[in-house]
Write a structure and sequence with these properties.
The chain has nine helices and 13 strands. The protein is α/β, with parallel strands linked by helices. The structure holds S-adenosylmethionine (SAM) and iron/sulfur cluster. The site of S-adenosylmethionine (SAM) has 21 residues, from strand 9 and strand 10.
C-alpha cells in the first residue's frame, strides 16, 4: 500500500506565519510528528501562503517580495525578508532532497515567497521541470503573482509554464479603483491588473484574486466597490477572495500616503461588501470571504449563489447584533 505523507500546518493565522509538522498517517491510533527543522528546506520566517495551500509543500524560490511597497502590507518588511531570488542550485537541491525523503507524499507545491513569478521564465521552467522529473506525484503547482511579474512574459511563455504544471496563481488585485491603488502604492492600475488576469486566462492558468474590503476607507468606499466589481466582471477569475484590510503593526506606514483614511466600521465594511456583491456579474467564480480577517463568513459560487449571499449580508446589515460575526479576538491576518 502506498504510504502517504501529509503536510500539516499546525500554527497558522490564515496568511500568518507557518510552521509545519510532517505527520505520518495514524499508525495504531498515533501520529508521528517531526518539527519544521526536519524539513530539507531553508525557511526564512515569516512565511506566508494562502489558506487553500495549507496542505501544500511550501518551496521558497525567492525570499520576500520584489515590490514590497504596498503601504498596507508588512508581510515582507523584516530585514531578513529583503527580496532576493534563491539560487537555482539551492532550489533544485531542495526538490531532489524532498523527492528522496518524501517522494510520492507530495501532491501540491506552493512556490514562495511574495511573488515567485518575478523569476524569469527560464528559471521557472527549470524549477517546474525538476518538480515534474523528481516529484511526479505533484498534481498542482501554484504561487503568488503580481501583474508586473507578467509584463515581460508572453502568453506563449505562460502557456509553457502551465504545460509544465503551474496551474494556479494568487493575484492580490486589492482594488479595481485607480485612486485607491495609488493611495496604497500598489504600483498597478485597473488596466494593468486586467491585462495580467487576461494573459493568465489565455495561458490556461487559473486565477485566484484577492480584493481588500475597507481599503479605500469611508471616502473611497463606493468607488472601490464599484471598480473592484468592474475589474472582476472584466476578468471573470476562477476564484475570488475578499479580506478585510487590517493593521496588526499599526497604521502609521499606511497613513503616510493616505492621511485622511477613515477606517470603515463593521457595518461600513458589510455595506461595502453588499455593494461589491450586488455589482458582481460572474459566470462561474468560487467566492470566499472566510479569511480570519473577515467579520462575516460568506462562501458560495457566483453568480449562482448571489441571491443567498446578498440575503445573508443584508440580514447582518439590518441586525448586526444578531449576526453570526466572528468575535474580535478570533480575527487576524
Ligand atoms: C502575502 S501577500 C502576497 C500577494 C502578492 N504579492 C500580490 O500582491 O499579489 C497576500 C495578500 O495578503 C493580503 N494582505 C497583505 N497585507 C494585508 C493587510 N494589511 N490586511 C489585509 N490583507 C493583507 C493582500 O490581499 C495580499 O495580496
Ligand atoms: S501586497 Fe503583495 S506586492 Fe504588495 S508588498 Fe505585499 S507581498 Fe508585495
Amino acid at each position: 500500500m502506498r504510504k502517504r505523507t501529509v503536510w500539516r500546518n499546525v500554527s497558522i493565522a490564515a496568511y500568518g506565519a507557518i510552521i509545519f509538522v510532517l505527520a505520518a498517517p495514524p499508525a495504531h491510533g498515533k501520529s508521528v510528528a517531526l518539527k519544521m527543522t526536519a524539513l530539507p528546506i531553508r525557511y526564512v520566517e515569516p512565511v506566508y501562503r494562502p489558506p487553500s495551500e495549507a496542505q501544500s509543500l511550501i518551496l521558497p524560490v525567492t525570499d520576500g517580495c520584489s515590490w514590497n511597497r504596498c503601504t498596507f502590507c508588512e508581510m515582507y518588511t523584516d530585514p531578513q525578508k529583503r527580496f532576493r531570488p534563491r539560487s537555482e542550485e539551492e532550489v533544485l537541491g531542495n526538490i531532489r532532497t524532498c523527492a528522496e525523503q518524501m517522494g510520492a507524499g507530495v501532491e501540491r507545491i506552493f512556490l514562495a515567497d511574495g511573488d515567485a513569478l518575478t523569476l524569469s521564465t527560464r528559471r521557472l521552467v527549470s524549477v517546474l521541470e525538476a518538480i515534474r522529473k523528481d516529484l511526479p506525484s505533484v498534481r498542482r503547482v501554484s504561487s503568488y503573482c503580481l501583474p508586473r511579474n507578467l509584463r515581460k512574459k508572453s502568453v506563449a511563455e505562460l502557456r509553457e509554464l502551465a504545460e509544465l504544471g503551474l496551474s494556479l496563481v494568487y493575484v492580490g488585485a486589492e482594488s479595481g479603483d485607480d485612486e485607491v491603488l495609488a493611495r496604497v502604492n500598489k504600483g498597478e492600475t485597473f488596466e494593468t491588473t486586467r491585462e495580467a488576469l487576461d494573459k493568465l486566462q489565455q495561458a490556461g492558468i487559473k486565477r485566484s484574486v484577492m480584493i481588500l474590503n475597507g481599503l479605500g476607507g469611508a471616502a473611497l468606499s463606493r468607488q472601490h466597490a464599484a471598480n473592484s466589481a468592474a475589474l472582476m466582471n472584466a476578468a471573470q477569475p476562477e476564484f475570488l477572495a475578499t479580506l478585510v484590510v487590517s493593521f496588526p503593526q499599526g497604521e502609521a506606514r499606511f497613513r503616510e500616503n493616505f492621511p485622511d483614511f477613515e477606517p470603515l466600521s463593521v457595518l461600513g465594511l458589510m455595506q461595502e461588501m453588499e455593494q461589491l456583491l450586488s455589482q458582481l456579474e460572474l459566470k462561474r467564480t468560487v467566492f470566499r470571504s472566510d479569511h480570519a480577517s473577515n467579520w462575516l463568513i460568506l462562501r458560495g459560487t457566483l453568480n449562482a449563489d448571489k441571491p443567498r449571499l446578498l440575503q445573508e449580508l443584508r440580514a447582518a446589515i439590518n441586525a448586526p447584533d444578531a449576526a453570526p460575526l466572528r468575535p474580535a479576538w478570533a480575527r487576524g491576518l
